[in-house]
Amino acid sequence: MKTMTCKQLGGACDKEFHADTFGEIAEMSKNHGMEMFQKGDQAHLKAMNEMQELVKSPKAMKNWFKGKRIEFDALS
User: Fold this and answer.
1) Which residues contact 7 (CB under 8 A, 6 or more apart)?
2) pTM reported for the whole predicted model
3) H or E segment at 37?
4) DSSP labels, 35-61
5) Dist. CA 59–CA 48, nearest whole Å
6) In which domain, by residue range, is 60 found?
7) How far apart, in whole angstroms, are the C-alpha atoms of residue 37 and residue 22?
């Protein structure tokens, strides 16, 4: 079981996500982001806007995910 925070995954807070795979942790982060969006959390909305800029370039987004997966895999 590995742990990453919302901030480590491009978010705005220190909420921890615990999972065995990067796919699971990415899904938890996505669900948390949707919850924070629905609550109108300004810090998370700002982080989401920054991520939307990244999504505009498929190559940049692919590289970002690759880096996060490498970071997850390196965790003990």
Assistant:
1) 13, 14
2) 0.88
3) helix 22-39
4) HHHHHT-HHHHHHHHHHHHHHTSHHHH
5) 18
6) 2-74
7) 22
The answer to whether 55 and 61 are in contact (CB under 8 A) is yes
What is the radius of gyration, based on Cα positions, of the chain?
Answer: 12
Supply angle C-alpha 5, 59, 64, rounded to 5: 15
In 3D space, the residue among 31, 3, 33 whose CA is nearest the CA of residue 19 turns out to be 3
Distance from C-alpha of 55 to C-alpha of 57, rounded to nearest angstrom = 5
Q: Give the pLDDT confidence of 35-72 residue by residue, as tens digits.
A: 999 999 999 999 999 988 888 888 998 999 999 999 99
How many CB atoms are closer than 10 A to CB 10?
15
Domain count, the chain: 1
**Contact indicator for 11, 32 with CB cutoff of 8 Å:** yes
